[in-house]
Amino acid sequence: MKDSALSASLLGWYDRHARSMPWRVPPAERARGVLPDPYRVWLSEVMLQQTTVAAVRDYFHRFTTRWPEVAALAAAEDAEVMAEWAGLGYYARARNLLKGARAVVAEHGGRFPETREGLLTLPGVGPYTASAVAAIAFDEAATVVDGNVERVMARLFLVETPLPAAKPALTRLAETLTPEERPGDYAQAVMDLGATICTPRKPACGICPWREPCAARAAGVQAELPRRSPKAEKPVREGTVWVCLREDGAVLLETRPEKGLLGGMLGFPGTDWDRGKTDATPPLAAGWQAAPVEVRHTFTHFHLKLAVMVSRVPLDAQPARGRFQPREAFRPADLPTVMRKAWEAAMAADPR
DNA sequence: AACTCGTGGCA
DNA sequence: TTGCCAAGAGT
User: Fold this and answer.
1) If you placed Cys at A338, which of A93, A117, A136, A297 could pair as Cys (CB 3.0 to 4.6 Å)?
2) What was the pLDDT predicted at A232?
3) Of A224, A253, A272, which residue sits at a domain end?
4) Are residues A113 and A195 in the same domain?
5) Which residue is nearest to nucleotide B5 (CA to C1')?
6) Cα atoms found within 13 Å of the Cα of residue A268, Cβ hemisphere only
7) How confident is the model at residue A2 (pLDDT cuts 50, 70, 90)?
8) Do A210 and A281 have their domain in common?
9) What value does the mean pLDDT take over residues A226-251?
10) What residue numbers bound the domain in which A189 lies?
11) A278, pLDDT greater than 60
């Protein structure tokens, strides 16, 4: 089958099965010349990096309600944006999102660059996101290569080389299929195919628009592709956080450094997690009480066992680290998930 | 080039 | 319960 026939059959499938999403313009509307707002496409694509559609939906709604256009986001406070992103993970995305919005305003007159090349200059926009925004928002014939596309190409062309080594070859194969007509619909179509039919386990080959040309299916190995190099085992790390409650209800919090794990996010003072708990020095002297259950949390590359210490202190307490936040200004939802778990453990130990 | 960086859902 | 991994980018 010719490449153009492959993309045509996929577009036909997409016309009938495109999933509805808040940031998407459906194919029938795109056919009438309607393109989506680049700001919303960019925002959704950044949120969707390594993140499921289900997890993104509510965050996308809250962000676009609070900051309807890029200029509004650019004018937001860092802490507001980080708090709104809390729970979604990969917090460098939120820091770069804000930098990107400010760059669009300051360096591009408030309008997004309209080419893949221009988009690549924005912080937090890499090869995938630049292609996605260029194709979806501007109908540039850019090739999107995400995890879905890698999987679909590995199966369609029976690529046995394990990832990530296979990535360049998979990218070249994907490029041969990208059509000049409707590249925006096509980009969304390949990803929809990977997300709904050509899934990692138990792909639904029986209803796949590409079942005939699929080489992996012909060989019966579709469920085994793409192969992946074995990944390193996750070490277990340990640490301690101190949850300090002042007499008036204020909570001791600190903003974490910009770089590194949970960078720029709010959290409780604590130890480093790459060393032991040996040099654990609390932020102030107090009657610290251990929460009965430790917090367990798994990050991308390690498991964490976190001890939670709780204390109550008088109004004149002077901590060496962090700042007391009035109880009414403190929302657990503003914390990254691991810190929210620590808060819940502290409340279980010492409810108020 | 390999490592860092979150979280939730699912089998 | 544990491991897998989802619309990746930065260093």
Assistant:
1) A297
2) 85
3) A224
4) yes
5) A90
6) 31
7) low
8) no
9) 94
10) 3-224
11) no
